[in-house]
Structures are given as C-alpha cells and as structure tokens.
C-alpha cells in the first residue's frame, strides 16, 4: 500500500481564488484552520475534482434549476472571473513511494456552464519537469494508485461537511448497492444479471412455444373432429370455372387452407349454396330479369330511355346546334359597339347551304365597313372631346380675366362684351356635342341594321332547320344532361334480352309508351319462397365464374366429391404433420424447462455466494465500526450501542442505535445531527482502514456539529489508528485546530496547521 503525500495545491481562476499556491510542508497531517468563508472547503473541492473529475455535492445541482428559464452565462459557479483566464486549472504536487510529480486537471472557461457542469473538465494530466503536460495512461493511473483512489475517493477517503450523512440518508437498498460496489461485488451482480437475462429470454421463448403448442393442439382437435375417411377412390377432375387461375379452388391441385376447404365442403357451405343455385337457376334467372326490369321501370327512367332513343339518331344535328349556338347565335345576340372589333361571323359549314349565295360575303363586308367607320368615329370623337376641353378651359380663363376680355382668341373677332363672347363659345360647344351625338346615333343604326340582316339571312334559316328536326335549346340541354352511354347500354340489353323493338321516328311520348308496355309484358312469375338473397350472394361470389353448361347439380356434386377426396388426403397428411410438430414442440418445451431449472439453481448458488462473501466483509466492518464508534461517541442517549444489521435477502443495510441488535429502527430517526456525524465518521474510518488502497483521508470540518467528547474520541482514533495515513483536516475553531495539531504531534505525527485567513489576505494583496 503506497502512501500518498500532498506537497501543495495550486489553483488558477477557481471559485474564490484568482491564483493561489498552498504549500503543504508536512508528511503526516495538514490542518486547514480559520473562520468560514476563507477557502477551506474550496481546497477540499479542488482535491475531489482533481481525483474524481467532479464535486459530488454539486453533481446534482442541475436538478434544482427550473429548465423553463435560461440563466446568464456571463458568470459561472466554478470560475473566479471569466475574463481573468481562458482556463480553470487545478494542480497538486504529490509524492507516492518517493516519486514526486504534479497532477493537473483543466477546463475551458467557455465550455463551462451555469448551473454547474463538470463535462468541461478534461482528463487527468501529469506535468513533466519541463512543464510539458500529457495525459496519464491507464497503466500509470493503476500503478500510482490514482485509478483506485478516484473510484473510492468520495466514499472511502473523503468526508465533506454537506455529505456527512449522505450514506445514512440513502435508501436501505442503495446502501447495500454502495457497499456492493465498494467490496467489488459487481462480478456477482454481472453473473446474476446475465442469468436473469437468460431466464427472461427462456421465459419469452417458452411463451412462444406454448403458443405454438396451443395452435397445434387446436388444429389437431379440429382435424380429428372434422370426421374424414382416407380412401383411394379416383375421382375425375373437371374444370367448371371460366378461369381456374382466378378461382384457385377449381385448380386440379388447389392450394387451400383448412379454413378454405371447410368453407367449401361444410354443411350449408359454398357447395351446398352452389347446388341450391343450380337447382333453382331458372327461377333465379326470372328473379334477376324482373329485378332488372323493375330497376328501369320508373316513369323518369322510361322518359330518359325514350329521349335517348329519339335523339341519339339526331346526335350530329345536336352537335351542329351546339356549334350554331356557340359561334353564331350567342355572339350575334351580345354584339355591341364595344365588342364589335372582336366579332367574327363563323357559320358552321353544314349550315352555309341554308344561306343564300353571296349573303355571307355581303354581311362580312358590312361588318368590316362598320368596324372601320367605328374606328374613324372613335378618332374623331377623341379630337372633338379635346376641342371641347380646350373651349371649356378658354371659357374659364375669359370668365376670370381682369380686365374684361372681349376679343375672341380663336378668330380675333371683337365682341361687345365678354358675356357675349362666352355665349358664342358655349354655342360652338353645343354644336360639337350635337355632331358627336348624331354620329353615335348613326353608328347604332348601322349596327342594328347589320344585326337585323344576320337575324334574317343567317339565324332565322338555321332556327327553321333545327325546328324541323324538333331541336331547340331545351332539347339540346336535356340531351347533354343525360348519361347517353349508360342509357344506350340499357337499350341494347332491352333489344337483346327482352326482344324490344322501338321506332325512333315516333315522338318521345310514343316511344315511352312502347317501352313501358314491353317492360310490363316482360315481367315473369317466379317462386317467391326461394332464398334469392342467398342465391344472389352465391352467384356474385362464385356462380358468375362457372361455365353455364356446368351450373347444374350433377356437375356441382362431382366437383364436391373431387374436393372432398383431396380434402381427406390433405387432412390426413396435415394431421400427421401436426402430430410430428406437436412432439417436436413438447421436446423443445421440456428442454426449456430443464434449462430454466438449471439457471434458477445456478442463480441461487451465485446469490448465496454473494451473500456469504458480503456477510464476511460486513463482519469485518462491524468489528472496526464498533471500536471506532465507541471511541468517538464514548456514550450516547441511555447508553445504547450502535449496530450494523444487514438483511441481504431484502437487499438492505440498517445502522441501529438500540440495546437490541435485532431492532429495525434506523439510527437516522433517533439520533441528533452531531451523533449522526460521529456515526458516519466512524463508518468512514472503518471502511477506509479496511478497504482503501491508498492511506489517505480528508475530513472537512467535522467539529461543526460534534460534541467535545466526540472530538476527543476522534482525535484519539486518528492519532492511534491512522498515524501512517496522510490526513487533510479542517476546522473553523482555532482552539480545536491547535489542539488537534498538538495531539497529533505528541504522537509523533508530522503535522502542519495552515491559517486560511492569512493566505486569503496574501492573495488579496497580490491581486
């Protein structure tokens, strides 16, 4: 066991220190004294952060912050001043087995966060004599004992003020877990976890195969209860469907499941329904025929059919009427002076023969002349409007002039007064307005004349033509509102199936009457007691795919026998397969149960070994704990002693203060804070003495809550049992600090007392 001696601590930009070096000139113990607030705990924090990479008491401070609100990052908890240095540096000069070296841990200030965050601190560094820093290798960490010290520091080697009762305040199970980690029981836990994982997987595997077994049992029972006789009868294959690839049940070797075979062959199954359909197919055809007729026998439907019959022969004329409406009638009806320029008279070719020869050319010439005249009139109108505007402006100037204006600025004529001059200007303006009005009236007359000629020579002959064909706007709209394709298909079915003949030259009313009479006479009587709903379902699903000549009872029965024979063979083979599969599943389940029992036994053996090992370790701890707690506490309330009581079956560790060792009341509930601190100090010293790989212990101000008698007991324990340890202690009481120094020195322990207030004063002077 190599002794660790701290020769000094250096801090840069850390907590309350900008830059400080605290030399330790003792080989046995260092006592940090001085009132609270001078940096004693800061040095303990620095050592903990150096060895472990974090400060345990601050590690969970993030949980205290409400994350819904952000915090300024200008100031940070572990940084003295963000502008002082880019880094926070913690260094310690150490001596281990006569080897001197400097350990260092650093953090980039800009990577540090508020609230506290230790992720910014890098790995542990060693400083070479030439001040070159490098990371410690894993081998170096282990050989120097730093690796083990870092793992156990917060539990075995250091007791802080704030965390003095942390162990006691843990859940009972968490205490056991902490002791397990301390005593390196993880190897047992790893084995137990692996075994538990295997047991879980075996359990899931068992559930899977039990489900498979249940399915196999169910299938075997179904096959056995279905009643089949395996025979060697040869039944002739007959394809009865129009396409067996779409109807897989009609294939020579159909690939059907148990459920599908059963659906076809069971009582009231598909083949029973097909036989029923075949037996009553003639009645079903009557039913379907009547149903189809009734679907089209309404007055509205018959009118649509008659209308389609009448006018489908005039479809070309109806299309021509549509072109006439679009290209002639609508443009001519909406023709005005304002859209004249875009107007074009486009008469469909089939209607040109109705118009007298040469009329279209004459009309087109009239339209073009009218367009030119309107264009010229528009230009003249603009000039006249400009002249009127100028006259109005001139009249305004004359009216407001001073002195009075009597001479006309346009012609130079001298009038007797400006009033007379204004009257003449007004008369000329009215004359221009009259001329513009007369021109507009003339243009409208010409436009009306052109529209009248279009009406007489183009529109009227066309309308007379369409009237002769009984086509008008109402007929046109109704025709194109109908589903002509669907109605035509219905009429074709009527002609083919019902032998209806219709004269399209008749009126719509006459055609409607003809269709209605034919439909009434086509209605057939049928047996209404039959189940036509079931036959409908059977026909739509299967019957419509069967060849007409095969839809009879004999052929359906032959097909049933063929499928029954195949089904019997299939069931026999499937039963054998299922029984083999069930045997295979039972063997697997037996093996799984065997493995589960083996692992259960193995788990119990490992758990028993773990408990035995932990009991031995706890028995070792108990001896030292009883000694140290007795020394430190001397006596407590009513003289009751302290006991460590473990219940490893329930994974808990109790520390009780009672006359009865078997009491289950935890000491946390019936001891004062000073007594609890003494208890924890005793436990920490016991664990350190037994299990710390490095003879080092740090205790931050244990005297704050301890009684005087407890302090004397602690001093005696430290100087007698830990005289070969390097100790870092602190106290805010100068008298106790000096007493501790005196007692340790008297026992031959090299001890140094450092007054922190003096160091703080020196730093302030340097700053």
From TrEMBL:
<dbReference type="Pfam" id="PF13476">
    <property type="entry name" value="AAA_23"/>
</dbReference>
<feature type="domain" description="Rad50/SbcC-type AAA">
    <location>
        <begin position="9"/>
        <end position="224"/>
    </location>
</feature>
<dbReference type="GO" id="GO:0016887">
    <property type="term" value="F:ATP hydrolysis activity"/>
</dbReference>
<protein>
    <submittedName>
        <fullName>AAA family ATPase</fullName>
    </submittedName>
</protein>
<dbReference type="InterPro" id="IPR027417">
    <property type="entry name" value="P-loop_NTPase"/>
</dbReference>
<dbReference type="GO" id="GO:0006302">
    <property type="term" value="P:double-strand break repair"/>
</dbReference>
<dbReference type="InterPro" id="IPR038729">
    <property type="entry name" value="Rad50/SbcC_AAA"/>
</dbReference>
